[in-house]
Amino acid sequence: MFYDGLLLIALLAVATATFLLFTGGEAISPATNPALELVYRVALGAIIIFFFGYAWTRSGQTLGMTTWGLRVERNDGRLLDWRTVLFRLAAAILSLLPAGLGFLWIVFDREGRAWHDRLTGTRVVQLPREHRRQSHRRDR
Questions:
Q1: pLDDT bucket at 32, cuts 50 / 70 / 90
Q2: Element (DSSP H or E) covering residue 89
Q3: Does residue 79 sit in helix, strand or coil?
Q4: Which residues contact 109 (CB under 8 A, 6 or more apart)?
Q5: Which of 21, 32, 99, 121 has its CA 20 to 30 A from that of 71?
Q6: How far apart are CA 70 and CA 65, in angstroms?
């Protein structure tokens, strides 16, 4: 999560800098420009959804997950579709709300699943070392 968080912050910062071109460097606020602020919020949300959705539907792995040999998949082992991605991201917000307890739940869950995994029928699996080496070779 930390690696992906850094990447996502960088993407959001670039998007924010782009929007600041339209305000002359002034903060984007609903008081000064409500239409631009709405477009800005939608753009940030779209970036977050696309960041995870593209990776999870394509390979089941974000760049951070690849580093640690993790993959998110449905309970039947198939990759997520966009509907499941949207549902999982929404459920992850619920996991964050009570001070991140839904994420910490993996420590107590006998299958190591967070609340959003339980709600969406997904799981995060550790890939075997051999598979990780093969996927890195294919990507080069």
A1: confident
A2: helix 82-96
A3: coil
A4: 118
A5: 99
A6: 5
pLDDT at 129 (0 to 100): 82
Closest CA to 69 of 121, 135, 119: 135
Residue type, 66: T
Quickly count: other Cβ atoms within 10 Å of residue 32's Cβ. 11
How do residues 86-129 score in pLDDT, each as one tens digit?
999 999 999 999 999 999 999 999 999 999 999 999 999 999 98
Nearest to 100 by CA among 111, 112, 78, 115: 115
Domain residue spans in the chain? 2-139
Q: Which residue has the tokens 């969406």?
A: 120
Could you give the CA distance from residue 94 to residue 13 in angstroms, rounded to a whole number? 25
